[in-house]
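Thread: Modeling a multi-component assembly for a lab meeting

Hi all, long-time lurker, first post. My supervisor asked me to bring a structural picture of a complex we are working on to next week's group meeting, and I have zero experience with this. I have the sequence lines for every component (668 residues in total). Could someone generate the structure of the whole assembly? Inputs are pasted exactly as I received them:
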Amino acid sequence: MRGTNIGRLTVLGQQILSGLATGSLYALTAIAVVVVFRNTRTINLAQGDFAMIGAFLGVVFLKDWGLNYYATIALVVACCMLLGIIVERFVMRPIADSDWLTLFTATLGVYYILHGLAGWIWGRDTKAFPVTFDPTPVDIMGAVISKGHLFNVAWALAIGIAIYIFLKHTRQGIAMRAVTDDPDTAQLMGIPVRRIVMLTWALAGLLAGFVGVLIAPILYVSPQMMDDVLVKGYVAAVFGGLYSIPGAVLGALMIGVAENLAGGYLGSHFKTATAFAMIVVLLAFRPQGLIGIQKRREI
Amino acid sequence: MAMLKTTTGAADGERLAPAARRQAVKRLQATFRRHDLLLYMAFFAICIIVPMLPFFKGWMASQASLVIIYIVAAIGISILTGYTGLVSVGHGGFLAVGAYTSALLTKYFAVDLAVGLVAGAIMSAFIGFLLGAIFLRLSGAFMAIGTLGFAFFVGTVVNNVPIFEGRDGISLSANYFFGSKIGDFGFYYVSLGVLALTTLFTYAIVNSGVGRAFMALRDSEKAAEASGVNRVNYRIIAFTISAAITGLAGVLNAHIVNYISAEVYGDIWYSVDILVAAIVGGSAMLAGPYIGGIFVVMVPFFFETLADFSSILKGVVLILVLMFAPAGVAELLGRPLRRYRERQVMEAAGKSFSKAPSAGAGTTSEAAR
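Re: Modeling a multi-component assembly
Sure thing. I ran the full set together rather than chain by chain. Output:
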């Protein structure tokens, strides 16, 4: 009797741990969604596709070019940043003064284009990512988590800390937050708003690059691989009211854990529905986000 | 509008002359409305006659039906997005609700297509009502994400709940409309009928007090509420109507190929395509969804062998439209006609009557955004 109880607890711990692992990848997507939204009023529907392109590039670099894993990550991240900058410069900047619906729809156009490009170049079939997900179990205080998951968590944590330091302590990061608070005042203070906006998109590309490479071994690579992840990233971003990065991260981790628990205890059918049930409940009762940040400058 | 004119006229102190001008402007606008009506009637006459010509094959009728389905769905979303200013990225969800309602009824009770249409619309309207009530406090970007979540939710449900038969899909027998079996052509005419009724209904709504309340909410929620527009009620009404119309499109979409599966409805592509149709065409104009629907269906049709290329092309066109004709292609194409009409209205109103042009323009064109 006692043994089974302990067994149950361990299973619960494992469910939570692997939920946190998936959640940390949602968190990276959610951070990108929040950063782009608060600096440019744009809900970036192409965020997932940046990562998708990154995953495909990862396959190319690893398989065809024979690069090693870390060189691939660096190259993929650089390419995704470039992609973000290109999108900003040639799509978003010409319509930067439009209402948010126009901005949003433009990213929808980018979504179409990237989906089409990926399908055209690499085909619609799913591809296996050359680096396989490492299922070797690692024991953490009784709960077992796979090495691959642990690896992803470590990466996500490192990136999260790097972004925190960047936003809090570097000139560019502080300028970025100034643009978030009030673009006009930031402009008057001599902050090059345009360049900061471009940097914002580059940051979104950077996060997407990491997500693409880290998630590819779990998901298989295909043009629509990221659709699901992206929506969970949005849901997580809404947890922070689309403004708060800590709120978004918290939301992402909660979604990861909740859907894993639902999958474990209610059946795998319920796994995907959990995030959407959460968003409906959240939006119905606390539209301003879980972390009660008021939507600023909204008329 | 009329109130505004009367007050300015009274302020000018010339009561008779402005009254006559107002009469002239009203007559002119009535003429324009008549012309518009004639144009639509001519369009539908052509749509009725063309399939009777000898060169017209069954597959063309199916393709045309598909275009009509998208037009109807885009009209549905335009009520919400174009006229009420609430963006939905989840209308594929309503399409699925309509489609599955009718498909299940047909499978288990062998109902008529007419019954399926009514049931699909009612079911979809009900879900739309619920969603409108749930998302009462949302606006802008939050609404977009919420509706996107709804579409995914519907996709998950049809994928996993056994009665919807997931990816195996539901196969349906032939379509019966009021008891008689219909083929490709019959289906086309049914779709055309649905489109005509939807268009008429939308026209009536947009030009009624309800439509004006929608547009007031779109232009400024606070000002509308201050003028006594009940935001809650009208938002729910907009959601319900919009969902019902898109549900109709969903029913047609299920019966056009007599097969539905979660393979297509579990995705967000329908939602995205419907939104793109409304935005490319122009979501705040009656003619917008027509152009958008044709665009969204015909681009993949012409590049059938190059599905990915058509996706790229759609994206590029969408971005170009946003850059150069943000109010939609219909607005761009209709601009010369509207300019001409505005000039006429201005002349009829007289040059000293400086308030007239903008007021007149507002009533002749629904494209004010």
